[in-house]
């Protein structure tokens, strides 16, 4: 898959992790939604997923895991990033 213009930002604390994906086009939104749908079954925990607007006309989808003691969410984030062809996560 070619490198896309989706911006990925990852944060984590003790038992909390989050991956935010900023995008500009409807095509990118659909790609993100498909990546999430295919990747979230890799984790036994149910993620909190929400979206919203950010600057310069971009939108964002965020995937969060709470009480992720075994860091299962990491597998999901890696699969999403790989599926989308993102080379760098901030």
SSE map:
Blueprint: E1 7-12, E2 17-23, H1 26-39, E3 48-53, E4 59-65, H2 73-84
Antiparallel strand pairs: 1-2, 2-4, 3-4
Helix pairs in contact: 1-2
Task: Give a written overview of the molecule.
This protein has helices at 26-39, 73-84, and strands spanning 7-12, 17-23, 48-53, 59-65. The protein has one domain (7-58, 70-84). The protein has 90 residues and is α+β, with helices and mostly antiparallel strands. Helix 1 runs antiparallel to helix 2.
Would you kindly provide a brief summary of this structure?
This protein is α+β, with helices and mostly antiparallel strands and 90 residues long. It contains two helices and four strands.
- Summarize the helix and strand pattern as letters: EEHEEH
The separation of the N and C termini measures: 20 Å
Helix content: 25-40%
The stretches of 5 or more residues where confidence is low (pLDDT under 50) are none
SSE-based structural type: alpha+beta
| Rounded mean pLDDT score | 91
Radius of gyration: 12 Å
- Count helical runs: 2
Number of domains: 1
Q: In which order are the strands of the major sheet placed?
A: 1-2-4-3
Q: Strand fraction band?
A: 25-35%
């Amino acid at each position: 898959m070619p490198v896309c213009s989706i911006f990925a930002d990852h944060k984590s604390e003790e038992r909390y992790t989050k991956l935010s994906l900023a995008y500009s086009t409807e095509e990118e939104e659909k790609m993100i939604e498909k990546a999430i749908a295919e990747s979230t079954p890799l984790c036994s925990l149910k993620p909190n997923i929400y979206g919203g607007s950010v600057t310069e006309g971009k939108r964002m989808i965020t995937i969060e895991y709470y009480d992720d003691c075994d860091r299962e969410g990491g597998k999901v984030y890696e699969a999403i990033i790989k599926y989308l062809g993102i080379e760098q996560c901030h």
